[in-house]
Amino acid sequence: xxxxxxxxxxxxxxxxxxxxxxxxxxxxxxxxxxxxxxxxxxxxxxxxxxxxxxxxxxxxxxxxxxxxxxxxxxxxxxxxxxxxxxxxxxxxxxxxxxxxxxxxxxxxxxxxxxxxxxxxxxxxxxxxxxxxxxxxxxxxxxxxxxxxxxxxxxxxxxxxxxxxxxxxxxxxxxxxxxxxxxxxxxxxxxxxxxxxxxxxxxxxxxxxxxxxxxxxxxxxxxxxxxxxxxxx
Length: 232
Description:
Layout: E1 13-18, H1 24-39, E2 46-48, E3 56-64, H2 71-75, E4 79-87, E5 89-90, E6 102-103, H3 111-120, E7 123-127, E8 136-137, E9 140-141, H4 142-147, E10 157-167, E11 173-180, H5 186-196, E12 201-211, E13 214-215, H6 222-230
Parallel strand pairs: 3-12
Antiparallel strand pairs: 1-3, 2-3, 4-11, 4-12, 5-6, 7-10, 8-9, 10-11, 12-13
Helix pairs in contact: 1-6
């Protein structure tokens, strides 16, 4: 497709490889600003089909203009992630946003136990979102209450894991690939994985590689998309 054939008002689907430390909204805001500036618009609809945490990288599906009507459909698709779980320690946020709060012995863990525990999650399982998440409780984001030291109570939901493959070459760092349903929190999966191992665990790296039929292999960086927009 020629760069000049993009019609962001009529509606475009943009596959973005989200950089580390950016929020999903940071990406939307940056691209929307460049589209508005280039086209001389006061406003244009731009949204994403599924949040990625700031500490995650990878595929962010962004829609513009009339294509934003398709966002809910894209959000409902299964997702695929790769990443790393560090076994033997936990954090309140289930990832590296917060400091380690507890450590555990890992000497009892064997490769067979790791594989058995990973396989035990395949299928439907009841999952609680992390308290450091964007879930709203009484109109307030859960992470805002958690960071303020307030008690946060979140409801569980059943999610579906269709694949949970692990690689234990660098144990206690466990690399993984997970295919899962909409709404699955990989941070919670990492925490629950460690809990079942009786050793604790937290997420140290996360990358979304697929969302439905879309792959990060076809995604462009934020800078590449800006160059396309500005060069129109």
